[in-house]
Amino acid sequence: MVFLLMGGAYLRSRIKQAGKWDQETIVSFFLCQYCSGEYLPIVEALGDRASIRVDVNQAWDAATGAKGCRELAAMGVDLIEQPVSAHDNAALVRLSQHIETAILADEAVATAYDGYQLAQQGFTGAYALKIAKAGGPNSVLALARVAQAAGIGLYGGTMLEGTVGTVASLHAWSTLPLQWGTEMFGPLLLKDDIVSVPLSFADGEVVLPQIPGLGVELDEDKLRFYTRQA
User: Fold this and answer.
1) Could you give the domains of the chain?
2) Mandelate racemase/muconate lactonizing enzyme C-terminal domain location, by residue (predicted)?
3) Contact of 28 with 197, CB cutoff 8 Å
């Protein structure tokens, strides 16, 4: 089983998708332009019943990011993802040091080297881990080790992979303390799948397969059906 080869220090039969929060109490949304005030009614209505996270998706420059992040923090948002360009580490570091709300670096950190560079500059938030972004399980775990050494939090991210990519991520995440949880919901968006037995999702958790390898078997008939010639 892959998670045993990776260490499995935090092995459980189920992997919590939402960390300490229940499935129904996480609200996340994209904020792609400066309009943070429009979300205040949502935050106020949910109160302390939900953890609210916002993905700005690199939409703000440094000045707008400083203003927007302060406003989101004042509203009670718990996590702000990549508010500025992935190429503006200086602004990202400043925000992490001066904004009360945690800042999540996503596009800014793909590899362990990226993580080291950002940590060396003084970043104090959290890193979004993604296997596809890092180039594989070993690479993403190397980034996680850098973050842990620097006291930076971890979040298990998704690039909306299907079941095979998702289960590879789950094996890696099972070895880590994810302070900000994870959201491996890619397979739930599929109308059909190429695996014989789908992953089991229930109550904000997904069961980690415990059969050899990644724990999933391809449905050869489905694979042939969906194969397209280049």
Assistant:
1) 2-226 (3.20.20.120)
2) 12-102
3) no
Which whole number is the average pLDDT over 74-95? 96
Residue type, 40: L
Specify the amino acid at residue 13: S
pLDDT at 37: 62
User: Cα angle at 208 between 202 and 212, to 5 degrees?
Assistant: 145
Q: What is the pTM of this model?
A: 0.84
105-113, long-range: CB < 8 A, 24+ apart: 106/55, 106/81, 106/82, 106/130, 106/157, 107/58, 107/82, 108/82, 109/143, 110/134, 110/135, 110/143, 111/135, 111/139, 111/142, 111/143, 112/139, 112/142, 112/143, 112/145, 112/146
How far apart (Å, rounded) are the C-alpha atoms in residues 227 and 224?
Answer: 5
